[in-house]
Amino acid sequence: MEKELKLKEQDGVTFLQLPLFRRTKHAFSTKTRKGGKRLSAALGIPKGRLLTLRQVHGAEVRFHGPGAPGLHLADPCDGHVTDAVCALLTVATADCVPVFAVAPDARAVAIVHAGWRGVAAGILERGLEEMVAAGGRAEDTVMHCGVSICGNCYEVGPEVISAVTGRRVPGPTRLDLRNELAARATRACSIARL
To answer: Considering the entire predicted model, what is its pTM?
Structure first.
C-alpha cells in the first residue's frame, strides 16, 4: 500500500498523499516544527479547523460537525469523523496504524489510530459506524492503512493474538495489524476498496 503514496512538498512542508483520495485534502506527515498550521496551509486550508486528540489506545471515535476555525483538542479518543469542510483531522502513530477512510457520496472522512488494543476493541468498526451515521455507505467507502510497523517485525504475546484475532497460539508470534484491519474491513464492514 505504501507504494501508492506520493511524496509532496508545499511551502516547506513535506508530506505523503494517496492518489486514491485525490478529491479529499489529506496528508501523511511527520510532525512539523510549526505544527498543524503549516500543514493546514500547505494543504490549502489555512483558515480551517485543526482537530487533534489525546489518544488512549481504545475504540472511542468522535464526530465533528461544523465549527469555529483554529486548533481543537477532542476529548480522549482514538478517532475522528467529519463531514464538515475545511476540517483537518489528525492522529499520531509510531507502531500503530493510521487508518484513513472516505465516503465520497456523503463527503465524510474518518481517521483512526489503530494499535492492537484499539483493533481488539473495534476502533475500525466504530469509526466506520460513525461514517455511516454521517450518511456514508460502507460499501462505497474507500480505506487506506497508512505506514506502521510491519507484521514481520511486530512480535507479541499469545494474549495479544487472542485479543485481536481470537486465535490461540502457544507462545510469542508475529502480528500484522494492517492485514488484520484489511480483513476486518472486507469481512465485517463491507469495504470493497482498500
So the answer is: 0.84
